[in-house]
Amino acid sequence: MIEKNRVSIIQDNFLPAEQFAELKANICSPPFDWHWTPIIAYDNEETYLAQPSPGFFIHIVHENNMPFDPKYYNLFASILNHLNPEYAQNQDQPGTAAVIIGRIRCNLNHRLPEPYKYMYHSDLECLEDRVAAEWTTSILYINTNNGYTELETGEKIESVENRLVSFPANIEHRGVTQTDEQTRIVVNFNYLKMTEAGQEARRKGQVGEEQYKSRRNREGKEV
Fold it and tell me: What is the three-class DSSP state of 9?
């Protein structure tokens, strides 16, 4: 089922059950490494000091046009065609990329006594707004809990296992932590959907890939 709520599109039971079970089992297994980051997003130091972030854990799968963790990359690469199925189904050559990936990252929030609302942010703040609007941010929820995602439009998306929410990458959003389950785990995808016109734009270097990479490196922004 696809439910349209203004700027966001919600897809429940996004992945086939067997594929999702394999993904979840790997992400929740002890060998899957997580790295602590104390800061998620804030406007300036004054804002951060006024409301210190509880931090979260991350696992970067892919960024800056290359996989960070080859051991797990294929597990996530198999999801990409599901992000743009119409294009993938119409390609004669197997392995044709259905999306251009900016970043794939797993996030893990630990349980807190009270819900914590992180700062609104765009995952592609390193891109100009008009370029970021052509990209898509998708969030895949790995487990069900009472945390949620909130968009700047006021939309709230509950954390439901195997649910995917997608919206234009220039839309600001924030995570809200859970109080019930021990963890809240999501996989965040930032990508450009390929189209026949997009293939031509990519060849001409007009889709923002290099802009994403060069501006992020130059400005050192966390997106």
Answer: strand
* Domain coverage including residue 204: 2-217
Tens of pLDDT, residues 46-95: 555 556 788 999 999 998 777 877 788 888 988 998 998 877 676 655 55
Q: Is residue 223 part of a domain?
A: no
Strand ranges (DSSP E) for the chain? Answer: 2-5, 8-11, 35-37, 56-63, 66-67, 99-110, 136-141, 148-151, 156-158, 164-168, 173-176, 183-193
126: in domain? yes
Q: What is the pLDDT of residues 158-192, one digit of tens each?
A: 999 999 999 999 999 999 999 999 999 999 999 99
Residue pointed to by tokens 């050559």: 93
Which residues lie closer than 8 Å to 45 by C-beta, 6 or more apart?
A: none
Three-state DSSP at 62 gives strand
d(CA 106, CA 111): 16
The SS3 of residue 143 is coil
The verdict on residue 117 lying in a domain is: yes
The reported pTM is 0.82
The rounded distance, in Å, linking the Cα atoms of 116 and 122 is: 18
Q: How many residues are listed for the chain in this entry? A: 223
- CATH number (domain holding residue 114): 2.60.120.330
The count of domains in the chain is: 1
54 domain-assigned: yes
